């Protein structure tokens, strides 16, 4: 998404310099259209300044990364943000030491930072941006932990032949549980309840009954 404004100056170059200073950017990020060429006039009569409409090319990912860095600094944490862009989504990795404050209990702070970062990106984007934020490989470790947990609960449901209701989880974590047990024999998983108490229900023998 581009921002735009109209500026004027004695010359086109002077008008562009005004835009660069106003936006605190560099000339290579600016496109422009001359609305009126400057005119000197005669003895000051009929003189006219250059009028230019300028457009600032804004990269939503760059803006989001800068916003995230400001958030991290505001939390008094020294860290850098690395960005990787793929077809599916943009990944941002917070690099540093002692990042527990940014992760929070069960990743709640990290999720909040991710939400704010996506909001910042979509403020400047024409198409919806999807940014996945991670720190200290928390999301990878959490996924492995949930997969092991899902297998244990499935085993318990089969041994005790009873339905097991898991604790409330967000949509991303519920998806991991469902995907982990999707190919599991004699186990059916469903989601139940309303946010933020929505949870996964593991039912033993359900697939056998459907045959």
UniProtKB/TrEMBL annotation:
Entry GO terms, CC: cytoplasm
Keyword field contains RNA-binding: yes
Region spans: Disordered: 186-211
Alphabetical list of CDD domains matching this protein: KH-II_Jag (cd02414), R3H_jag (cd02644)
GO biological process: cell wall organization; peptidoglycan biosynthetic process; regulation of cell shape
Gene Ontology molecular function: RNA binding
Keywords: Cell shape, Cell wall biogenesis/degradation, Chaperone, Cytoplasm, RNA-binding
InterPro entries the UniProt entry points to: Jag_KH, Jag_N_dom_sf, KH_dom-like_a/b, KhpB, KhpB_N, R3H_dom, R3H_dom_sf, R3H_KhpB
Keyword Electron transport appears in the UniProt entry: no
Compartments, as annotated in UniProt: Cytoplasm
Residues annotated as domain R3H: 140-206
Similarity section: Belongs to the KhpB RNA-binding protein family.
Domains as described in the record: Has an N-terminal Jag-N domain and 2 RNA-binding domains (KH and R3H).
Record function comment: A probable RNA chaperone. Forms a complex with KhpA which binds to cellular RNA and controls its expression. Plays a role in peptidoglycan (PG) homeostasis and cell length regulation.
Quaternary structure note: Forms a complex with KhpA.
Name the UniProt record assigns to this protein: RNA-binding protein KhpB
Protein's organism: Marinococcus luteus
